[in-house]
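Below is a filled-in request sheet from our internal design queue. Each sheet records the structural input a requester submitted and the sequence that came back. We keep these sheets so that new team members can see what a complete request looks like end to end.

REQUESTER: design group, bay 2
PRIORITY: normal
MODE: inverse folding
CHAIN LENGTH: 314
BACKBONE (tokenized):
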């Protein structure tokens, strides 16, 4: 149980760092730090860009540089090597890195609920997960996809071996649109929105509504240590302030993202933000938008990830 204990201890430390984030910055020159995103900037990152645009990081004495990942970026390795101070990571990538011995700690939640889902092409034929039996389902090849698909299938009483599973990479939108697959694992806030904008009727099986607990999909992660803890306190103070703004006026936060990242499609990003806010993706259950990391949701995610075979748990 050593790895399980280490993973949960890291989550508890991360929650503690967030709780300590209310203080101001230490006197002196601004502290430089680099944050690497998990993907190209999009609506889910609106809170981060709002904090940057409104000077909230500066107010905390944190001179933050936001970097987009390269096509081959491994955020866990970037953190471990000191080439990044903070990184946005999918919680599954974080858990796998921890099991491989990378000493990381989560300090904040960017998205407070799972964004993963199984999206079906024909909502008239596929009404429940049970209707996926015998169908062709595309997966990207990322390990968490299999855990998501298996969980959704089992929620409908379907043995995971009873579907034809094909690896399609990140072509879910194109393959569903072309009717090459009956369903695919995909993010409901991204591919799900894109398909609707294309006029394609779909049915979404969001994993936390079909067998998985509610857990934070995206984390901000740092190395452990006193220096990183200080950076985390500053970062979280600024991000908490921005999430308060996001709760009151999501569109304004998105405007900060759009102004900061030229070339994004405003219509597509607004549709994605609308899906995120409607799905309460930035909020803990019963609360407003917050980046606070809740230890209970991380523990429940870990238990599910072990059951689903995503983590070893030994």
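RETURNED SEQUENCE:
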């Amino acid at each position: 149980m050593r790895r399980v204990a280490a993973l949960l201890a890291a989550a508890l430390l991360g929650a503690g760092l967030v709780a300590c984030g209310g203080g101001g910055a230490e006197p002196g020159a601004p502290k430089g730090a680099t944050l690497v995103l998990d993907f190209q900037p999009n609506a889910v990152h609106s809170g981060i860009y709002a904090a940057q645009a409104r000077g909230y990081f500066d107010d905390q004495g944190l001179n933050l540089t936001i970097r987009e990942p390269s096509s081959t970026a491994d955020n866990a390795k970037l953190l471990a090597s000191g080439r990044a101070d903070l990184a946005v990571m999918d919680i599954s990538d974080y858990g796998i890195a921890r099991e491989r011995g990378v000493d990381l700690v989560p300090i904040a939640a960017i998205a407070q609920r799972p964004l993963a889902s199984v999206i079906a092409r024909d909502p008239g034929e596929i009404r429940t997960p049970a209707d996926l039996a015998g169908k062709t389902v595309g997966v990207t090849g990322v390990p968490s996809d299999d855990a998501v698909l298996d969980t959704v299938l089992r929620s409908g009483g379907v043995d995971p071996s009873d579907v034809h599973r094909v690896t399609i990479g990140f072509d879910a939108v194109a393959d569903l649109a072309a009717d090459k697959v009956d369903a695919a694992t995909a993010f409901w806030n991204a591919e799900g929105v894109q398909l609707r904008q294309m006029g394609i009727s779909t049915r979404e099986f969001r994993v936390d509504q079909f067998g998985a607990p509610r857990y934070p999909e995206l984390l901000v992660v740092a190395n452990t240590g006193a220096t990183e803890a200080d950076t985390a306190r500053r970062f979280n103070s600024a991000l908490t302030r921005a999430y308060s703004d996001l709760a009151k006026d999501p569109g304004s936060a998105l405007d900060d993202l759009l102004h900061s990242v030229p070339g994004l499609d405003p219509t597509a990003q607004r549709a994605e933000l609308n899906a995120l806010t409607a799905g309460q993706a930035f909020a803990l259950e019963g609360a407003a938008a917050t980046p606070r990391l809740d230890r209970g949701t991380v523990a429940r995610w870990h238990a599910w990830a072990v059951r689903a075979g995503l983590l070893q748990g030994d």
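SHEET NOTES:
- The radius of gyration is 19 Å.
- The chain has two domains: 2-114+215-307, 116-209.
FILED BY: M.R.
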